[in-house]
Amino acid sequence: QVQLVESGGGLVQAGGSLRLSCVASGRTFSIYAMGWFRQAPGKEREFVAAIIWNGGSTYYADSVKGRLTISRDSAKNTVYLQMNSLKPEDTAVYYCAARWRLGIVAITTTPAYDYWGQGTQVTVSS
Q: How would residue 101 be classed by pLDDT, with cut points 50, 70 and 90?
């Protein structure tokens, strides 16, 4: 019902910046929230940031506060993750996710999301 496609990943030096994009298609009018998660090899998928589609309230993991910013463009059905002051610890596959309807599970957790993108690789070198 909803398809998500991420882009914008790549290789960047520590201290550099990247902007990830996620375009949603399908029944986008039913999206309650969108989020960014990341997963490094051998590690669990972890929450990065989320945004409520109507109103734009944002939520961040403590590890990225002040460096990463989530935003949306409703006209383009697109959510962004602006990443500044990148660290090698930020290296991971980044996934975009969409929560279709209002539910009872916190949007800072993976079970809250109904749809996932294919992921885009971000590599930060030192």
A: confident
Cα–Cα distance measured from residue 99 to residue 87, given in angstroms and rounded to the nearest whole number:
28
Question: Do β-strands 18-26 and 33-39 pair in parallel, antiparallel, or remain unpaired?
Answer: unpaired
pLDDT one-digit tens code per residue, 34-46:
999 999 999 999 9
Residue 70: exposed, middle, or buried by beta-carbon count in 10 A (0-12, 13-18, 19+)? buried
Which residues, in sequence order, are bridge partners of residue 52? 33
Which among 6, 12, 22 has a CA at the least distance from the CA of 90? Answer: 12
b/e per residue 73-92 (b: at least 16 CB within 10 A): eeeebbbbbebeebeeebbb
